[in-house]
Specification:
Elements (H helix, E strand, L loop, with lengths): L1 H20 L2 E3 L5 E3 H7 L8 E4 L5 E4 L4 H11 L8 E10 L14 E10 L3 H22 L5 H14 L2
Parallel strand pairs: 1-5
Antiparallel strand pairs: 2-4, 3-4, 5-6
Helix pairs in contact: 1-4
């Protein structure tokens, strides 16, 4: 409803301000993604992907993640190590086709998510940026009035586990 949309826009703007403050650059990647990009990483056949077929038999997936979209983008525009580090983020609707949606209302079949992708010259730089991003999330939580940051710490820990798994 209109009031909810206004609240959501205010939260999005807080997120944008904090991501921009740490050097993030906002982009918007396609929700409809090429099958070939997902086949390259071997994730096309994962059950979570919602798939559509066009009237001319071309297949696409509705983005549940954007690693497959952002990596070729980074490859195309990174000419040298001097172009690194850089950080891009987006706030976009995601789609997942899960038998049972995980995380309760936090992850339904269609949901709005802010995701950030960073590219670095070293693991040390990545780790330092991780700490900077963590602080940015704490600032976001403070600005929107969330006092208990236990879940955030847990969620960030799980993200790191997935990255290095």
């Amino acid at each position: 409803m209109p009031l909810g949309k206004k609240v959501l826009a205010k939260i999005e703007n807080i997120i944008r301000e904090e991501m921009d403050a740490i050097g993030g650059q906002e982009i918007l990647m396609p929700a409809l993604q090429k099958k070939e990009d997902w086949q390259t990483t071997g994730r096309w056949d994962e059950d979570v992907m919602m798939k559509v077929k066009t009237s001319f038999d071309k297949e696409f997936g509705l983005g549940w993640s954007h690693e497959e979209a952002v990596t070729p983008l980074a490859k195309k525009y990174t000419r040298s190590y001097k172009d690194l580090p850089f950080y891009v983020y987006q706030i976009q609707t995601k789609f997942r086709s899960e038998k049972r949606a995980k995380s309760g209302i936090l992850r339904g079949r269609e949901f709005l998510m802010k995701d950030m992708y960073s590219f670095h010259t070293s693991e040390k730089d990545l780790n330092e940026f991780y700490d900077i991003v963590t602080e940015a999330y704490f600032k976001i939580f403070d600005r929107v009035g969330i006092k208990d940051k236990t879940y955030l710490t847990f969620a960030l820990g799980r993200i790191i586990q997935q990255i290095f798994a």
